[in-house]
Design goal:
Layout (H helix, E strand, L loop, with lengths): L2 E6 L7 H16 L3 E6 L5 H12 L5 H8 L1 H16 L4 E4 L6 E3 L8 E4 L2 H10 L2 E5 L2 E4 L4 E4 L4 H12 L4 E6 L20 E3 H9 L7 H10 L3 E5 L11 E4 L12 E5 L3 E9 L4 H11 L7 E5 L5 E8 L4 H10 L1 H4 L3 E5 L2 E7 L9 H12 L3 E7 L2 E7 L3 H11 L6
Parallel strand pairs: 1-2, 1-9, 2-6, 3-6, 9-11, 10-12
Antiparallel strand pairs: 4-5, 7-8, 11-12, 13-18, 14-16, 14-17, 15-16, 18-20, 19-20
Helix pairs in contact: 1-4, 6-8, 7-8, 12-13
Length: 412
């Protein structure tokens, strides 16, 4: 029988009534002839509650015990869904990460999946016809036998990795939206649901602020060629909508120049002024940041007229701004900059589309449009299929709407 992996997020399993709705989605696919594995998140708000308990117990706590606590949310959901399915006459059993096993690295709280042995689930499919209800977000660190969690959004990654391990026909990610949109519909009411989007585009969109999927899950889908649908769990289980298919670029017949507009408020800007323009100065700045686990995104270097000093501007995640600033201030004598300036009221706005590869002047149109709207661009980065601009946060909605109209995404 063909195999299918279905994943349901926290809002989809927020209470027992919604879990019953999820069970009806699962029952539909079982009746359609699929062997089904379901990956579930914790009920909405439960993980935050568990994290809060850990912090209340001790501000500094053992990461291994933290994982043991926060992984319990998904275990509760998987057990409840299995019980509901059984009450409907659908054979089912719950699986925790260590029972499969999903082997993960020892980076507790941010582990990466290293290997999945799907043979036990496959044998239960063949021998018992059971739906496998899998607790997402977790694996086991094999050398220690300890639970290791995969970080926020890790259930998406669990689902795609399991689909690859089971050689599933597809992986359906059910959320509270009915697909991937050209941009945030809350900002642009004319935003449209995309029927298909390429792995590369989805990877860029996820990394640049779109909250639909975790970045790592898209990476795995692209690596293993797992066809992945984003669908809504709030659709009528008897008449679900198709959602958005994430697939190879070759599977998309008509490709627009720009597919979507994303924005990220999780940005902070740091500028070091009058840094000595000598070999090794960039390493003196960015190596310590890397060693501290602080990701640097946009980097701009402007050399002075006399070519002896330079201004270096870059962005870091907003949550790391204070730590990055403190680290650089401590190292001021070694780096040799004159002053440090920073800003947290900035937003990164991006346009993404594989069609950019074959079209010139795509970004230039945006620069001209922003100039006409009075939007100042602080920094720019580009790649083959996207360009990003750092702007003042006050212009976020105007910028997103301008780009969405500029590239014809408003059209029905």
């Amino acid at each position: 029988m063909p195999r299918l992996v279905m994943k349901f997020g926290g809002t989809s399993v927020a209470d027992l009534e919604r879990i019953r709705n999820v069970a009806r989605h699962v029952e539909r696919e079982v009746k359609a002839g699929y062997d089904v594995a379901v990956v579930v998140s914790a009920m909405a708000g439960k993980t935050n509650e568990l994290v809060g308990w850990c912090r209340e117990a001790s501000a500094i706590h053992d990461a291994r015990e933290y994982d043991a606590v926060v992984a319990s949310g998904e275990q509760v959901t998987s057990g409840l869904l299995a019980i509901v399915l059984q009450s409907m006459g659908v054979p089912a059993r719950s699986w925790q990460g260590w029972q499969i096993p999903i082997e993960a690295s020892g980076a507790h709280g941010a582990a990466r999946i290293e290997r999945i042995d799907g043979s036990k689930i496959l044998s239960h499919f063949a021998e018992r016809g059971e739906v496998a209800v899998v607790a997402g977000f977790q694996g086991v660190h094999a050398p220690t036998g300890r639970i290791a969690t995969l970080g926020r959004g890790g259930s998406d990654t669990s689902a795609v990795a399991l689909a690859a391990a089971l050689d599933a026909e597809r992986c359906d990610i059910y959320t509270d939206v009915d697909g991937v949109y050209t941009t945030d519909p809350r900002i642009v009411p004319k935003a449209r649901r995309l029927d298909k989007v390429s792995y590369e585009e989805m990877l860029e969109m996820a990394s640049l602020g779109a909250k639909v999927l975790q970045v790592r899950s898209v990476e795995l889908a692209m690596l293993y060629g797992v066809k992945t649908y984003v669908r809504s769990s709030f659709d009528d289980p008897a008449d679900p909508k198709p959602g958005t298919l994430i697939c190879d670029e070759e599977d998309i017949v008509e490709q627009q120049t720009v597919t979507g507009i994303a924005y990220s408020k999780d940005e902070a800007q740091i500028t070091l002024r009058r840094v000595a323009d000598t070999p090794g100065v960039a390493a003196a700045i960015f190596v310590p940041l890397a060693e501290a686990g602080i990701n640097v995104d946009m980097i701009i270097q402007v050399v002075s007229r006399d070519q002896t000093t330079t201004d270096i501007t870059f962005t870091v995640p907003a949550g790391d701004y204070a730590r990055a600033r403190s680290l650089l201030e401590e190292r001021q004598p070694a780096i040799g900059y004159e002053s440090l300036a920073g800003a947290t009221d900035v937003v990164k706005v991006s346009a993404i589309g594989v069609g950019m590869r074959s079209h010139a002047g795509v970004a230039a149109k945006a620069f001209k449009a922003f100039a006409e709207k009075g939007i100042n661009i602080r920094a720019i980065t580009t790649s083959e299929i996207k360009f990003s601009m750092l702007i003042d946060a006050a212009y976020t909605e105007l910028a997103v709407r301008t780009l969405h109209s500029l590239y014809g995404l408003d059209a029905a």
